[in-house]
Write a structure and sequence with these properties.
The protein has 16 helices and 25 strands. The chain is of the alpha/beta class. It has an eight-stranded mixed sheet with strand order 24-18-17-16-12-13-11-25. A five-stranded mixed sheet has the order 4-3-7-5-6, covered by helices on one side. One of its GO terms (molecular function) is ubiquitin binding.
Length: 599
């Protein structure tokens, strides 16, 4: 910061401080003294709240006990009720003064008697013990969370974006300067230049972690992630009757401001082979009715974006359903647990859902109608609601979150027609706000596919103010009331999808249903057809490397759970070693005896 002096008259000298463009310092005054912190004009009041609680007040006060005031006579607004407005929108500028009205500090552990003459020593020991306790308590809530392996792997990477040398560089080939030094994975200029709407989740995590947790200092760790919570808090400390008999500023949820989510948990959906989608489409080709299925696969790093993640789909399982020309109704699925267990034996997990929305255009050329586009919708309000349900059902475990989970890796893929009448797959997720709105029972689908309804308040449901922000025709950001309905686009997160250049799928066959010869046979005939698949030459050709076949054999309840993994490994890779390992299993020999007895 550079001082510049300007003379105002012969008796005074006005000192004006200039600061780098885009940054500003805000001062804070409380009964504890003066402090200041650095912000960006685009930072939200939530960022300011975190800085006040953790950096200025050193985590000694709760959000409910601290109020921000314009002047010393103002009662102010509790930190727990701050909305998502930016500092620029609230009128705060470089050098602004904010007064902090403090309530009671956090309760400290009861002290123990101190022997005479040991007061100073005891005070130091208690301070160290309190610091250690604070560090341990903040870490205990997160370190016990078992994250996915992909998250642990991405956290080990720095994600720096390399840059080539430029004409402005004045150093040798082994040197580095500001023009060619690597960029952070969350660099804003890089996102603008590459038109990135959503940064990867781990880039976002590094960004907020660097702002909240200063590793160079001795401060305790603070979980930087917090999922939105839109319900009335239970057991309010104010002592009033619970909702709907009573409510106060400490237990009521803050105003909900919907913006475009700056990150996405999963960046890309990759189908291991085009045959997976092609097989799933066969039912629609035969009947003209829509189909729905669960995608099973695994997660891998996605190197196209910094610290990116992709969901690799290896197979699609079609659960019990009633198909119609204009939709699908899911039925009760009693074997859900078994299917997930068999998938786990194959090294897979449920990563998402996929469904068709196809209508032939009647030209007899194989083209379909384009229903989803910028002038209609991409996901209907009902589909967004269903995606919110699934993402709430499959939370993403994360050690950086205060609750032990943050968002979801569950993805939604839709097969529909594009503007050229071609069949294509598009993939989406919904935002964390959408999932939290669903959990709080605040939204419901409408007959207009592009609009989501906000439910009315009643005795069982408190509905806070819900706003959404958009850019008007003059290029200004405008906030608008979301009641009674708002565009579903504010809840969408768009992903990319595609196929690998060199497919190497896990399964040799990609049927989503059983072969006709097996599906239509009686019990004895089905066993006879299965026995043929165990012929040595057939196994080497991949007869068992098919998820519906592996699942059918598991449904016979002959193979033990411990032996299913060995069988799946042999089915997908019928090597001599895997065969020898499987033949040593007693339950597998029983399975062979049952199958061969039907011949």
């Amino acid at each position: 910061m550079t001082p510049r002096y300007t003379g105002c008259n012969s008796n005074c000298l006005l000192t004006v401080f200039t600061y780098p463009t885009g940054k500003m310092i805000i001062r804070f005054r409380s009964r504890l003294g003066m402090s200041r912190a650095e912000f960006q004009p685009t930072d939200t009041l939530q960022t300011l709240k975190d800085s006040v609680l953790f950096n200025v007040l050193k985590n000694q006060y709760t959000a409910e006990s601290v109020s921000l005031c314009k002047d010393e006579s103002d009662m102010g607004t509790p930190c727990s009720q701050l909305d998502a407005k930016t500092l620029q929108e609230t009128g705060l500028t470089h050098g602004s003064m904010v007064f902090l009205r403090l309530g009671s500090p956090r309760e400290l552990p009861a002290s123990t008697p101190v022997p005479p003459g040991k007061e100073g020593v005891a005070e130091v020991e208690v301070s160290k013990a309190n610091a250690l306790s604070a560090t341990n308590s903040s870490n205990v809530a997160t370190t016990h969370v078992a994250q996915d392996n992909i998250d642990d792997a991405l956290e080990m990477q720095d994600g720096l974006i390399p840059r080539p040398t430029t004409p402005f560089c004045r150093h040798g080939p082994k040197g580095m300067c500001d023009y060619c030094s690597p960029l952070e994975p969350y660099d804003e200029s890089y996102q603008r230049e590459n038109n990135i709407k959503h940064m990867s989740f781990h880039s976002y995590l590094k960004k907020i972690n660097s702002n909240i947790n200063k590793y160079a200092s001795a401060q305790s760790f603070i979980p930087p992630l917090e999922e939105p919570y839109f319900k009335v808090k239970e057991k309010c400390p104010s002592g009033h009757p619970p909702w709907p008999l009573g409510i106060c500023s400490k237990c009521q949820p803050s105003t909900i401001m919907m913006n475009l989510q700056p990150f996405r948990i999963v960046d890309h959906v990759e189908f291991a082979s085009p045959a997976i989608v092609d097989s799933f489409l066969n039912a629609w080709r035969r009947t003209g009715f829509q189909r729905i299925g669960y995608t099973y696969g695994h997660y891998e790093p996605y190197t196209t974006v910094p610290l990116g993640m992709k969901a690799v789909v290896e197979t699609i399982y079609e659960p019990p359903q009633i198909s119609e020309a204009d939709g699908v109704t899911l039925q009760e699925w009693p074997e859900e647990t078994l299917v997930d267990q068999v998938a786990a034996a194959c090294g897979l997990r449920r990563v998402g859902i996929i469904y068709t929305d196809l209508t032939d255009d009647g030209s007899a050329t194989g083209k379909v109608l384009c229903k989803r586009h910028a002038d209609s919708y991409f996901l209907s309000s009902l589909e967004v609601y269903n995606s919110s349900y699934f993402q709430a059902k499959f939370p993403n475990p994360n050690k950086w979150s205060q609750t032990g989970s943050f968002g979801s890796k569950f993805v939604t893929s839709v097969i529909s027609g594009n503007s050229n009448g071609e069949i294509e797959v598009t993939s989406y997720q919904v935002s964390n706000v959408a999932t939290s709105l669903y959990k709080a029972d605040l939204i419901q689908p409408s007959v207009d596919p592009d609009r989501m309804l906000v439910k009315r308040e009643d005795k069982s449901r408190y509905v806070p103010d819900v706003l959404y922000r958009y850019v008007d025709e003059y290029g200004k950001q405008v906030s608008k009331n979301a009641k009674p309905a708002f565009p579903v686009s504010f809840l969408l997160v768009t992903l990319t999808d595609g196929f690998p250049e060199e497919p190497s799928p896990m399964f040799a066959k990609h049927d989503t249903t059983l072969p006709i010869a097996i599906e239509t046979a009686d019990e004895t005939g089905r066993l006879r057809q299965l026995a043929k698949l165990f012929d040595h030459d057939a196994v080497q050709a991949g007869s068992l490397s098919n998820f519906p076949i592996i699942l059918l054999l598991a449904q016979l309840s002959i193979l033990k759970q411990d032996d299913m993994e060995a069988f799946a490994k042999y089915a997908m890779s019928p090597t001599e070693e895997n065969e020898k390992n499987l033949n040593a299993r007693e339950s597998y020999q029983t399975l062979l005896a049952v199958l061969y007895s039907s011949m």
